[in-house]
Design a protein that fits this description.
Elements lengths: L2 E3 L5 E2 L13 E2 L10 E4 L3 E6 L5 E6 L1 H11 L4 E4 L2 E2 L4 H7 L3 E7 L6 E8 L2 E8 L20 E4 L5 H11 L5 E4 L3 H6 L1 H10 L2 E5 H8 L12 E5 L5 E5 L2 E5 L12 H14 L4 H15 L23 E3 L1 H11 L23 H9 L6 E4 L2 E5 L1 E4 L2 E4 H15 L6 H6 L2 H7 L12 H18 L3 H10 L3 H9 L12 H12 L19 H10 L2 E3 L2 H8 L6 H22 L3 H9 L1 H4 L34
Parallel strand pairs: 1-11, 2-11, 4-7, 4-12, 5-10, 7-9, 8-9, 12-13, 13-14, 14-15
Antiparallel strand pairs: 3-9, 5-6, 10-11, 15-16, 16-17, 18-23, 19-20, 21-22
Helix pairs in contact: 1-7, 3-5, 7-8, 9-20, 10-17, 13-14, 15-16, 18-20
Length: 629
């Protein structure tokens, strides 16, 4: 988020008594058996800051330190591998208590030192640079057998070549490799920076660096399976998931010292990814902590013993905690709150050898079962197939099953990548000869993205499930892998991904075997949002938004997100307070579509939550065309 120009840079090289000496004391990596989420390679510095208001401040600094401290503030267990000063300077004493610190022991005067002049608006000039003992950490001396963290980040070092040497040594199927950069090496060593980018699973840059490497930020690309993050200062950040790009909005901030803002974003994102967050949700957390951090001097805001500030919620919609408690207490003992096993005439029979591929491909298409007219909701999808009137997702599954029986290869990635809207129209043809599915072009795009990404990643559904089950947290591993697969990766709340996880867990085959204490994210579609609004689990504070929801008007993205995120939080709290599994809670609320439908008066007498319902039956889910649900 901070754009540093080279300015007048004076680089002081290492002198003779800073050479690599095996007899130097060394603070080792944490002992085998200890668990950390992140290893950061890159050090701490002692900086002189010329702030834009004329103040001169002395503070701890360094890309590695900011990254490590931000990750720790965001809840990760972090090791920083860098020269460690003894005795510890007062500026670094507090920081050293928040992270584990390995590396060669050096006297304080061998630490890197930087002088930075800030000009406001996130712009700065690097005036002087003393790289000190950074050269004492080398790729060759890094003890790979002692690395326990699943993510290793290579912070900006003095040269891109040094970063590349670490990246080459660390590249492994067992390590998710991350790297950052800075404008000086992007300008002077662009080919080397691109080589690092090619090796990295995660890569971080600001818009100035993106311009140097790609011509402009909106041209930044990522290979399939890779995540690239581009910070845009007060305008937020770009999240690049292969060929899919999302803009995360910036937040208002009081800028006192923007040093390390981009590294703070980076560390927070890495902590969130290690914890299983979707990349977009991770970027929201990174944006929030970076905006908070620049209100202090140096890393002071990263040393606070309190949870990192969240990305602020939209105040127009809130979770009603009292109503959450009522509903949770009620469904805790309801016998009908049970998970569904996804068997029956709409689905492949148990143990069918093609069922796994079918569920992966068909679940991609679980969205958009409604029509709009004159910028208002018109009607849900209901059509006859083989003599049965089927609604929405039931119609989708039944038609997909029919097509698969006729042509089993249709669910394979190569076929999905080539599907056209015309072919899908034929696939979903109803008894009357028409194709009732709205937004056929979007369905074709999703199928194509799914097929292309699986082919590019060299993965099959069976391989994805096998990899997930080998992980300590299989459900989290599955969701994170789907963050790279078209048709699933785009949704920050992972509705289709979590629906697929429930299918894989609850089918008789029990393809996915999650750990007992894993998180169970909600599966939020428009039926769940309608239930949350009408039961009062969420309350719309804004009168204008409430009016437009009641009128069933087509809404902009920000309005839909306000309702959906609140519903996500509310259903998650109901699940946790009731003690019922998300598969059971989701199926219970999803089936409320029959008791509390879109087009007719709700049958409240038949609803199990009638006794505690707020009966806000005029409210309607956000009318918003999306491929997420």
């Amino acid at each position: 988020m901070l754009s540093i120009d080279s300015g007048h840079v004076i680089e002081f090289l290492m002198d003779a008594n800073m050479t690599i000496d095996p007899s130097r004391p060394f603070a080792a990596l944490p002992p085998e058996g200890s668990h950390h989420d992140l290893l950061v390679i890159g050090g701490a510095s002692l900086d002189v800051l010329h702030l834009s208001d004329g103040q001169i401040a002395h503070a701890a600094g360094g890309a590695g330190l900011y990254t490590a401290l931000a990750a720790a503030r965001a809840g990760a267990r972090v090791v920083m591998h860098a020269p460690r000063p003894e005795p510890m300077p007062i500026e670094l004493a507090a920081a050293s208590r928040h992270i584990a610190w390995s590396g060669p022991v050096v006297p304080p005067d061998e630490l890197p030192r930087f002088e930075i002049a800030h000009h406001g608006g996130g712009r700065a000039t690097l005036v002087n640079a003393v790289w000190g003992g950074e050269m004492l950490i080398t790729a060759e001396a890094l003890p790979l057998d002692q690395i326990t963290a699943p993510i290793v980040h290579i912070a900006a070092l003095r040269s891109a070549e040094r970063q590349l040497s670490f990246a080459r040594r660390l590249k492994s199927p067992d390590i998710r490799l991350s790297a950052g950069t800075y404008s000086h090496i992007c300008r002077d060593e662009p080919a080397v920076v691109r080589a690092i980018l090619e090796l990295a699973d995660y890569f971080f840059m600001n818009e100035n660096e993106a311009t140097l490497l790609f011509g402009r930020p909106d041209r930044v690309s990522a290979r399939p399976g890779q995540l690239v993050f581009v910070t845009l200062g007060e305008r937020g950040a770009l999240v690049v998931q292969g060929d899919h790009v999302t803009r995360v909005a910036g937040l208002p901030a009081v800028e006192l010292d923007p040093t390390g803002a981009g590294d703070t974003f980076c560390g927070t994102v890495l902590a969130a990814l290690a914890g299983g967050d979707h990349p977009i949700m991770a970027a929201r957390r990174g944006t929030a902590l970076a905006a908070h951090m620049i209100g202090g001097i140096g890393p002071a805001q990263l040393l606070v013993d309190a949870p990192a500030p969240p990305y602020p919620a939209d105040g127009r919609v809130r979770v009603d905690e009292t109503q959450v408690g009522r509903v949770a207490a009620l469904i805790k003992h309801l016998p009908e709150v049970q998970p569904f096993d996804f068997t029956g005439e709409l689905y492949p029979p148990p143990d069918d050898p093609g069922a796994l591929d079918w569920f992966f491909a068909a679940t991609v298409q679980q969205f958009g079962f409604w029509e709009a007219r004159d910028q208002h909701y018109a009607a849900p999808l209901i059509a006859r197939l083989d003599g049965r009137a089927l609604k929405g997702s039931d119609y989708l599954f039944a038609a997909y099953r029919r097509a698969w029986r006729r042509e089993p290869a249709i669910v394979q990635p190569v076929a999905q990548a080539a599907l056209t809207a015309e072919q899908l129209a034929a696939l979903w043809q109803a008894d009357d000869g028409a194709s009732p599915m709205p937004a056929l072009a979007l369905h074709a795009q999703q199928a194509n993205a799914y097929g292309r990404d699986l082919q590019a990643l060299g993965l099959t559904p069976a391989a994805i499930v096998e990899q997930a089950n080998r992980a300590a947290r299989p459900r989290a591993a599955l969701l994170s892998r789907l963050d790279h697969v078209g048709g699933y990766k785009e949704d920050p709340l992972r509705k289709k991904s979590m629906l697929l996880a429930l299918i894989l867990e609850q089918r008789p085959e029990h393809w996915l075997r999650p750990a007992p204490e894993e998180d169970q994210p909600p599966v939020i579609d428009y039926h769940l949002m309608r239930s949350c609004l009408r039961t009062g689990l969420i309350e719309v504070i804004d009168d204008d938004l409430q009016r437009r929801l009641t009128a069933r008007q087509v809404l902009p993205a920000a309005d839909e997100w306000a309702v959906r995120l609140a519903a996500f939080e509310a259903v998650g709290r109901v699940q946790r307070q009731s003690g019922r599994g998300m598969g059971a809670v989701d199926w219970f609320f999803f089936n409320a579509r029959r008791r509390c439908p879109e087009m007719t008066v709700p049958d409240c007498a038949a609803c199990a939550v009638d006794a505690v319902c707020a009966h806000r039956v005029a409210l309607f889910q956000p009318v918003f065309r999306t491929t997420f649900y």
